Amino acid sequence: xxxxxxxxxxxxxxxxxxxxxxxxxxxxxxxxxxxxxxxxxxxxxxxxxxxxxxxxxxxxxxxxxxxxxxxxxxxxxxxxxxxxxxxxxxxxxxxxxxxxxxxxxxxxxxxxxxxxxxxxxxxxxxxxxxxxxxxxxxxxxxxxxxxxxxxxxxxxxxxxxxxxxxxxxxxxxxxxxxxxxxxxxxxxxxxxxxxxxxxxxxxxxxxxxxxxxxxxxxxxxxxxxxxxxxxxxxxxxxxxxxxxxxxxxxxxxxxxxxxxxxxxxxxxxxxxxxxxxxxxxxxxxxxxxxxxxxxxxxxxxxxxxxxxxxxxxxxxxxxxxxxxxxxxxxxxxxxxxxxxxxxxxxxxxxxxxxxxxxxxxxxxxxxxxxxxxxxxxxxxxxxxxxxxxxxxxxxxxxxxxxxxxxxxxxxxxxxxxxxxxxxx
Length: 424
What we know:
By secondary structure, the protein is an alpha/beta fold.
């Protein structure tokens, strides 16, 4: 999951957004971009927008909404065929294929005016496929990834070294290392079991690298998690509680709880979203700054597309009269120099493979090497409209398994039956 600071915005942003569009439309060389406050902050609070204007002569006015308002506001504008916004930041969390008929496909623009510095091939394929409709390798592209990433393994370098342990590459090695590192009040592992989307995505970070899916691609009409990989991941998490490898309270932890457990030396390892790393390197707030290592999460080597990719893409409003101008801005903001600057200076999750190998990025960003190894293995997330209800249903059964009131096999079997009913 994304850090709460990446998800929430203030009410002032809403007040600004209400009045802005009428002013924006009066400026013919101006683009209107509706986005999230954290995404605007990642541009250097508008520094990238100013650089784009200096380069192109096109002014970009950003209108921000917090997450809970952004999705509905974008959908409202699209359905009304409105032109208040030329471009929009769309998160995988609220992107569905039903929105595609209102979005300008990017394929023709990419062919005639391709992204510089490697073009589409420089983006992790799974991240591009996330915003295709249908989500196949050749489906029309509706958005270009601008702020998308995967989770990583966070681990205490010093404690692994003291125990003579290698960085775990498989789930079995991860759980074994967790048992070894559990001493007194310090648990070897922490995970996020908070009911709802948090619990499902955190379990999925264990299950997907073993070969499980949430729903069957590309139509997302059937559950795909009740299999050996899903059961193994859930069994391992339940055993962590039984063995006290994790704090029993982790069954209700959100991302802040898990981050704090590692940062305050209450846990030694975790699999968490890659954008969290600044929290651990902040010497004013973290007790483990400089002692955290980063690696791709444990996976079955036979599973290529293993790490669920989550984040944001830039899209063009199909009703906009400024599509070519909007495409110029999208190319600019997703280009290598801007992605590198935002990654180094603002901790922005990067979507270009070359950025993770850039010497400046490698020197400045501790997770760069791990990210470069993980991004090629990024996989798509479902975009079914029923996904929020799927999360609620599945999390309830995952919670029962963690509590020991249902076996992992029974929990996923029952969840599969209920999810399939929802999807039908």
